[in-house]
Specification:
Blueprint (H helix, E strand, L loop, with lengths): L3 E3 L8 E3 L7 H17 L7 H26 L8 H17 L4 H23 L4 H21 L1 H4 L5 E2 L4 E2 L2 E2 L3 H23 L2 H11 L1 H6 L4 H27 L1 E2 L6 H14 L4 H17 L7 H15 L4 H8 L6
Antiparallel strand pairs: 1-2, 3-6, 4-5
Helix pairs in contact: 1-7, 2-7, 2-10, 2-11, 2-12, 3-4, 3-5, 3-10, 4-10, 8-10, 11-12, 11-13
């Protein structure tokens, strides 16, 4: 039996063989090399710390969105509460370093472990759901996390938030925009490389087969539950680690990092850049992280604009920006 994966874009989407969605190693690493080159030369074009700050935030968001795209775009499992995992990582770093004097690295690892355990526990019951019921379940999970972070004020600072110490490792403190840029740029390249290799691995092909048809996947021996749980946990842990990085970089964290609106931002980044596209995740994160800066004079309208972008994308570019351009210019690379 030949398994095919379905392109995102509605119920009338055309099935595409898995082999057609796989890039050659040359094409894959060519795109990775271009990304690394752009990140290497970009500091030459950044005139001041404000631009460094924007690019660092883009890179952190891109890391989260890559993990979320593995869950949504490649496996077909929606998550409307993913910012909750981001919040767990951020608050783990903040609370454990501030109240319990843990080292930043230990706090980050503990936050990622706690997130992974929580994701594993809830994954099996949640991922049995389909469609809008799955969306509502993940939304509820995110809201619960946000409420807990807000109400446990004795540790989290409540709605006012909590300060976070600088990230120190073996006596070395990550400080300054240039240092942070170098760290997140390296992590973004590594995240992209890992995602591309995962997608083209047997496990990655199983995830794409699940997206195409769970029934067909089970018929040929794919343990769909196990693969869905694994990718859910992986995407949650990636979000937690990025949340810790963001908390240490900004130096302050509030419950908004785990809020519903932030989850919608992440989903919009995935859809706009391109589901089932690793490089689309980066493009979507860049566009929608820059957008609030462009709209800074129109305070309060960001939510409306995000909604309009998502609506127009689904109407005119249902596959997302990068897959649409790739199809138009006949490039099969991711």
């Amino acid at each position: 039996m030949k398994i095919s994966s379905t392109q995102v874009g509605g119920s009338a989407a055309t099935p595409v063989p898995l082999s057609a969605r796989m890039s050659s190693p040359f094409t894959r690493y060519n795109g990775l090399a271009i990304l690394a080159l752009i990140l290497a030369v970009l500091p030459l074009a950044l005139p001041n710390s404000f631009y460094y700050d924007v690019v660092i935030r883009i890179a952190i968001n891109a890391i989260v969105v890559i993990g979320l795209n593995l869950l949504m775009g490649y496996t077909g499992q929606i998550s409307l509460g993913h910012a909750g995992f981001l919040g767990i990582g951020a608050y783990a770093s903040a609370v454990l370093t501030s109240h319990f004097s843990w080292s930043p690295l230990a706090a980050m690892v503990a936050g990622a472990a706690a997130t992974g355990i929580l994701a594993f526990v809830v994954a099996r019951p949640i991922l049995k759901l389909k469609g809008h019921t799955l969306a509502m379940a993940t939304l509820g999970l995110g809201i619960i996390i946000s409420i807990v972070l807000t109400n446990e004020a004795q540790y989290t600072g409540g709605p006012d938030g909590i300060s976070v110490s600088a990230f120190e490792l073996l006596g070395w403190t990550i400080a300054g925009e240039r240092t942070w840029y170098a760290v997140v740029a390296v992590l973004l390249v590594l995240s992209t490389w890992a995602a591309l290799n995962l997608i083209d691995s047997p496990g990655g092909r199983a995830l794409q087969a699940i997206h195409g048809s769970e029934v067909a996947s089970r018929v040929v021996g794919v343990d769909t539950t196990r693969f869905k749980v694994r990718i859910f946990v992986l995407s949650a842990v990636v979000a937690s680690l990025a949340g810790s990085l963001s908390a240490h970089y900004v130096g302050f964290v509030t419950p908004g990092i785990a809020g519903f609106f932030h989850s919608i931002e992440l989903v919009t980044m995935v859809v706009t850049g391109g589901m089932s596209s690793v490089f689309g995740s980066i493009v979507g994160a860049a566009l929608l992280t820059l957008l609030p800066q462009v709209l800074s004079t129109f305070e309060g309208w960001e939510t409306v604009v995000y909604g309009v972008i998502l609506m127009l994308t689904m109407i005119f570019m249902p596959k997302g920006l990068v897959p649409t351009l790739r199809q138009r210019f006949g490039n099969r690379g991711r």
